[in-house]
Amino acid sequence: MDEIDFRLPDGRVLHGYDSAPGATDRLVVVWHHGTPNLGTPPAPLAAASERLGVRWVSFDRPGYGGSTPAPGRTVADVAADLTAILDTLGIGSFAQLGYSGGGTFALGATALLGDRVTAVATLAALAPYDALGLDWYDGMIPSGVASLRAAASGREARARNELVEYDPEFTETDLAMFGGPWGWLGSVAGDKAMPNGPDGAVDDDCSYVLPWGCDPAGITAPTLLVHGTADRIVPCAHARWLAAHVPSATLDTHENLSHITILAQAESALEWIRTHRG
Fold it and tell me: Distance between CA atoms of 227 and 28, rounded to whole angstroms?
């Protein structure tokens, strides 16, 4: 896999990944990582990727890994960053898969990039903060509410909240997932993802509580919204709201799966993307 530093016109650097450089016979799938992770393509899907003929392209969002911070960035801003990477690599159409907040960024890019996106699937994505009719915080764990309410008060408030210990309230079933292939998340999280400070996570959280800068109702690509009903980090109501407002969406809920155990559905989501590639 190639790791590439993409230099943008505004002087920023995005650290990117390409699992099959130059391969034109594979389906390009852009991976959007969660918070707070690196953008490395998901190793637990490596075997499925080979079977399905997938070429992963991804990048560390600004402030993570080797990517320059971009305070004030919005969900919509990912589209321009992604376009710069894909254009540099000579890639035209592509599909997307995003986990957690990465699913939100995948939806934002899909809303703005139109027919260039052949399909998008999300695992536990957040809905817009200003979503009408959605009680955005309802059902979230207290640590998540505290972090995101701090972000809603401004970047400085969210940065101060970084000093408060975050408790994801993992269950025994969640912890068992970490004992399997998805233990990979530990290799791309925390200090590994933010060696130069917390900008990535701070700016992610701030972007979630800002207007997206794009309308999910404008998404035309086939869209799969995968969510667990027991998710308390991003409650399932977010997926239900998105399904009601994205005309092309299919809602795929799973009883008793959480924010972590929903990752057991990632391979199925990738298979769905392959089937709906256009």
Answer: 24
